[in-house]
Design brief:
By secondary structure, the chain is α/β, with parallel strands linked by helices. It has two domains: about 140 residues, Leucine Dehydrogenase, chain A, domain 1 (Rossmann fold, 3-Layer(aba) Sandwich), CATH 3.40.50.10860; about 140 residues, NAD(P)-binding Rossmann-like Domain (Rossmann fold), CATH 3.40.50. It has ten helices and twelve strands. The strands form two sheets. A six-stranded mixed beta sheet has the order 2-1-3-5-6-4. It has a six-stranded parallel beta sheet with strand order 9-8-7-10-11-12, sandwiched between helices. Strand 5 and strand 6 form a beta hairpin. Helix 1 packs antiparallel against helix 10 and helix 4 packs across helix 5. The protein starts with 12 loop residues before the first strand and ends with a helix. Bound molecules: 2'-monophosphoadenosine-5'-diphosphate. The site of 2'-monophosphoadenosine-5'-diphosphate has 15 residues, from helix 5. 2'-monophosphoadenosine-5'-diphosphate (ATR) binds next to helix 5.
């Protein structure tokens, strides 16, 4: 019973994930289980959407819809259809989380960057033995982002906002420059970043697709370079344990899995949708069970 049919009534709030394709998304599983766990009168469905602009025109007029998540390929176009955009989502130029206010207006958030950045911050706190919640352990850190696509932007803006010194390395230097300029950072190619180590204990975040199934034997940066990093994050989650993360672990770095970003961005969406804390253990258990 994916949709908790027994909970659905005329006043049930409807949430959903828009995408194309969308059928593979695990969000309905997670959110419906979460709604059920606290008896919320809400349902979350898959919404296969082709024309995002038309979708949102209709969407803001329907009062039982309460919010939606947004996935490939709609994250950028959706931003254009909003009444209000969270400042960082606006800078990133992408939204994955849209909330419909009672007056019908739509507000866009980006929880992808919060998911990744909070996972990285907790990793650093673990490493430093620092108290959770006091300042950002990213402040002043040299933060190297590999890739300059959608995920690269999220990580670069997120890290810059936390006071990190950002380096963007990308196969195509032009794209790295464009992003680095926007976050007040430095740009270089993937070849250059392999021998870039002005200091030790840097933070590395891979957002390129290098190392993703079916090319899981690839890695975006040579193992030798990893000695200079104290924490390595990989946005790839298929496979969970990428070659980059294995080599980082062998080099003595703390590692942060892409699955952690995925799960935490979901916690943030749940908070924005319901105003409640997410049932974190339930989300984690379901993700593992349905991996
Ligand atoms: P996402 O939204 O997941 O970030 P994207 O916007 O398509 O996806 O970005 C993909 C990133 O992976 C880009 O930084 C891309 O580099 P280019 O800007 O040079 O295209 C990087 N990428 C993809 N395939 C790559 C490869 N074989 N080697 C190096 N970088 C690669």
């Amino acid at each position: 019973d994916l949709y908790n049919f027994r909970l659905i009534r005329p006043d049930t709030k409807v949430y959903g994930i828009i995408g194309k394709p969308v059928g593979h998304s695990k969000s309905p599983l997670l959110f419906n289980a979460a709604f059920k766990s606290v008896g919320l009168n809400a349902v979350y469905v898959h919404l296969l959407v082709d024309d995002v602009e038309k979708f949102f025109e209709a969407y803001s007029a329907v009062d039982f819809v309460a919010g939606c998540s947004c996935t490939i390929p709609h994250k950028e176009v959706a931003v254009k259809c909003m009444d209000e955009i969270d400042p960082i989502a606006k800078k990133i130029g992408a939204t994955n989380n849209i909330v419909r206010r009672p007056d019908g207006t739509l507000t866009a958030f980006n929880t992808d960057y919060i998911g990744a950045i909070s996972a990285i911050e907790d990793g650093l706190r673990e490493l430093n033995g620092a108290t959770p919640g006091v300042g950002s352990p990213l402040a002043g850190k040299l933060f190297v982002v590999l890739g300059a696509g959608g995920a690269g932007k999220s990580l670069a803006y997120g890290a810059a906002q936390k006071g990190a010194r950002v380096v963007v390395a990308n196969r195509t230097l032009e794209r790295a420059k464009e992003l680095a300029d926007k976050v007040g950072g430095q740009a270089m190619t993937l070849d250059e970043v392999a021998s870039f180590h002005p200091e030790d204990r840097m933070v590395l975040a891979n957002t390129t697709s290098v190392g993703m199934k079916p090319n899981a034997d690839g890695t975006p940066i040579p193992k030798l370079a990893l000695r200079h990093y104290c924490l390595v994050f990989d946005a790839i989650y298929t496979p969970k344990d990428t070659r980059l993360l294995r080599e980082a672990r062998e080099s003595g770095a703390i590692i942060v899995y892409g699955t952690e970003m995925l799960i935490r961005q979901g916690f943030e969406q749940y908070k924005n949708f319901t105003g409640l804390q997410a049932p974190e253990e339930l989300f984690r258990t379901l993700m593992e069970k349905h991996a």
